[in-house]
Amino acid sequence: MAAEKSSIKIITLIAADGSVFEVEPNIVKEMKTVQSYIDELDQNTVSIPLPNVFGNDLAMIIEYCKKHASEEETKEAKEEFDFEFVKRMKSDDKLRLLQAASYLNMESFLQFMAKAIAAEIENQSVEFVRDYFQIESDFTPEEEAELRKENEWAFK
Amino acid sequence: MASTDYKVSNHIHDDVVLSILSKLPLKSLKRFTCVCKSWIHLFENPYFITMFCNNLISRYHSFYDDTCLLLKHTFPGEDDCTMFLLSGERFDSKLKLDWPHPFQENSTNIEILGSGINGILCLYKVNHTPIVLWNPATEEFKAIPPNPVEDLCNFTTLVTLHGFGYDYIRDDYKVIRSVDFISTLTHSEHDTTMRPQPLWEIYSVRMNCWMKLNVDMPPRYVSNAGGDVYMNGACHWWGVTNNEMHLVSFDLSNEFFLTTPLPAYAYDSFEWVEKHLVVLNMSIAMISNYATTASFHISVLGEFGVKESWTKLFIIGPLPCLEHPIGVGKRGDIFFNKDDNELVCFDLSNGKIEKIGIKGRWSFEAPVVAARNLEATAVVASIESIVVAAGIVVVVASIKALNIVVGEVGSADKTQEEMKIVVVETVVVETVAVETIAAETAVVALETFVSILRFIYQLLLVSAVVSFLLVD
Asked: Per the database record, which ranges form the SKP1 component dimerisation domain (chain A) (predicted)?
C-alpha cells in the first residue's frame, strides 16, 4: 500500500470552472477530502474533480499549501506570507475560501480563515455582521431593543 | 457569483460559523447575540463554550514571550523565603535564586508586589522597608528611597503597597502606595473630623522619588486572597467601598482609576467564597473558591467598569484534593496548592493535573510570577545590541545571565563544565559577529569614498566644460 501511494507523482485537481491544477502529493496532504480519494485509488496518476471550488480560490489554496509544506521556509517567512495573504483578500474572498476549506476538509487552513474573518468582524456593528454573513434578523424590533438593552455595555 | 454558471454552495456550515465566533473577544460576542435568534444561546452550548475557552487561553500575546515562572515558598513555621525559577516543559528544571543584597542577610517575610514585568520584580518586606526592584537575570537591583510621611499628632501612619507596574508612555516603572492615618487616641477622645484623609503616592524610577497622587481610590481589601496584579499598563486590586468589593484598576500612564463591581452572582452563595484576582492569558479573571463543593469558578471580565461584563467561563471540580490557587502561569496553567502540600499545575485546556515535583513539608504562599526576559531574552537582546556596536558590555551581560545557571545548577561538576563551554562559545560567536559587521562597515565606507571621488571628478569635468564654453 505504501509503495503504491508513493508511486503517485502528480495529482490533477479540476476546479468548478474547469481550470486544471497539477500538484505534487505533499501539497494535498492537508486536503483530507482529496487525500481520502487518493487513498482509495491505486493508480499512478490521479485526476480529481472539485465541483465546489472555483479555480481562482483553488489557486490561492495551493499557493498557501505550497508555502506551508515547504521545509526551507522559516517560521517568520510563513507568518509574513500569512499576513500578506489575508491582506490582499476582500471579505467575499475570505468567505469563499472558508467554504472551500470546509469542503476540502482542511483543518488548519479552515482555522486560519476563521481567524481572519473573526479579526474582520471584531468590534463591528450587528448590521455589519448580518450583511457579512447574509443573515436576516428574525427578531421583532421590540425583541431586539430588549436584547440590546440587556447587553448595553457591549455596544459602547 | 450568482452570474456564473458554476454552482458553488453558498451555505456556511453552522459549526464553521461557531468556529469563527469562538475566536472573537467577549465584548464583540455579547454584541453579536443580537444578530439572530440562534446566536443568543451561544453560551448555553457546551461545544461552543469549550471552543471559546480554548481560544481565550491559547490566544497569542507577546507579553508571554520568553517568560518564566518564579515561585517563592516558605517553610511552615518559619519565615525564611526561597525563590525558585521553574523552567522546562514540565517545570522539571528548578533553579534556586539568590536574593538581592538587601535581603541576603535576612530573607524572612519577603513579599513580591504584583507580577514580574520585563524581568523586573518588586520585592518588599512586610514592614515595607526596603522596597527593592530586582532583575534576577542581571542581578541588578535598586532600592526605592523611603519617603517618610510626617507623623501627625495623635495618629500613626499605615502604609500599604498597592501595585507595581510599567508606564508604556514614559517607559517608566512605578509603584503605588496608600498612606492611612490611624488614631492613637481612645474612643472617647476621638474626634472623627480631625482624621486626615488617606493619601495616595506614586513612585517613578525615572524621577526616583515619590509623588502625591490626586485620587481617592478604594484601598486594598487585605483579607482576601490574590491581592494585586498588573496587566497592560494598569495595576489592579480588590478594593472595598461601602462594604462592597470592587475591582480597582489604576492606569499608570494617565493616572486615573476605574472600579468594577463584582457580578451579582458572586453573592449567590451563603458560604464564604475566597476570590482570587488573576491574569488569565491577558484577561482579568476572578477565581472563586467554593470550599463546600470543592470547586472553582472562573469568571473573565469583558469590559472595565461594567459589572454585567463578568462572564463565568470555567468550572473546575469538584476536586477535593485542590486547596487554593497560588497563581496563573502561561496560557491556562493554574498552580494550586494540593491537600498534601504539594504544588500542582492544573491545565485549563485539558483538565490535567500535573505535579511540579516539589515535594516535602513546604507550603507555598506567594504567587507564581511570570517574569519576562529572565534569561533567554537577556542573551538575545545582547546580540541585538552588538549590531548597534556595544560589544563588550553585551558579552558581559550574557555571561552574567548564564552565570546564574552555572552558579546554581553547578552542584554536579559535569554540568558546570558544560556550562562553561556554553559561555565560551557564546563569546566566540559574538566576537565573530562583531568582526563581520566591522568588515561590512569598512566595505560600505570604501564604496562611499569611491562614489564621492567620482562625484568630484564629474564636477571638475562639468566646470571645465563650462569654462571652456565661456572662454569660447
From this structure: 110-154
